[in-house]
Amino acid sequence: MSTKLLDSPSWFNAAEMHAKQHPLTAIALLIAVLGVVALIAQSTYEIISGQQSMALSYALAAGLIGFAATALGAIPILFIKSLPTKLEDSMLGFAAGMMLAASAFSLIIPGIEAGNAIFDNKFLGAGLVVIGIGLGVFLMLGLDQFTPHEHHQTGPCGAGYERCGKVMLFVMAIALHNLPEGMAMGVSMSAGDLSVGIPLSMAIAIQDIPEGLAVAMSLRSAGIKPKLALLIAIASGLLEPIGALLGVSIASGMAWAYPVGLGLSAGAMLFVVSHEVIPETHRNGHQTTATIGLMIGFSLMMILDTTLG
């Protein structure tokens, strides 16, 4: 099977057919992409001119830490063949809890505060964040529908998945999961406010460790050799610095772009948690264990944000 993706005419044909079958999803993706492009366009000058060089450095550093944490978590795949399903579900639940708390405490709340400062109006300030959340959800919904990928439990999905190899499908699934995390780190650093950026980046890095192992184990259980599974899991971590650079470019322009960017990252992360992570942890009958892991992760992130924010 071919592993070509975006350069394949057959994928474009499949995407076109999928768009005709799901017009609302296609419109949502188009709105999200146009919104992201607009945010990036209006902030490009400030980054190129050096006005945001410090924020860019912070974002890249945060993304590289996330990449290193993912790689660290994946290394045990060389020494262990499998993990108990209950343990794997609890690890993913822990990651989901940290992502939920990070979305609330490190993205949505600072976004509302920034919006209030711009308009001196709580309703309008919150409205900016809601717009961002909508863009984030539209973006992830569209990517989920139009990007070929595969989940270990549910199998392949997305337009044109039948034309892609199994490894490519897993890689794309990991990319869809890691990209919003990187974007969140970049957006949180875009204003140069480390009280927002450090807790969020630490939380994402901490949950990247069990997440990296879970990804590697999923690849291993799909029949991929340990060394290749390790390399793929490590490579997936590259989406974090890439996403961080994208995030800082989204939110580094005019003042209103910061709360919108925070909302966008929160919306993307909430979508991934609700649409992918939580259902995955509940699919094997270990929902209680996974929920306990989620609560522990949520509580840890709340403590990090309170003490470091």
Report on the structure:
The protein is mainly alpha-helical and 309 residues long. It has one domain. It contains 11 helices and 2 strands, in the order αααααββαααααα. A two-stranded antiparallel ribbon has the order 1-2. β1 and β2 form a beta hairpin. α1 crosses α2, α3 runs antiparallel to α9 and α4 packs across α5. The longest helix has 35 residues. It is globular, with a radius of gyration of 19 Å. The N and C termini lie far apart (49 Å).
How far apart the termini lie comes to 49 Å
Q: Which whole number gives the mean pLDDT?
A: 77
Strand order across the largest sheet? 1-2
Poorly predicted sequence stretches spanning 5 or more consecutive residues: 1-8
Number of domains: 1
Number of strands: 2
| Main sheet characteristics | 2 strands, antiparallel
Topology as H/E string? HHHHHEEHHHHHH
Question: Helices and strands: which structural class?
Answer: mainly alpha
User: What's the helical proportion of residues?
Assistant: over 70%
Shape: globular
- Rounded Rg: 19 Å
Which strand-content bin applies to the residues? under 5%
Number of helices: 11
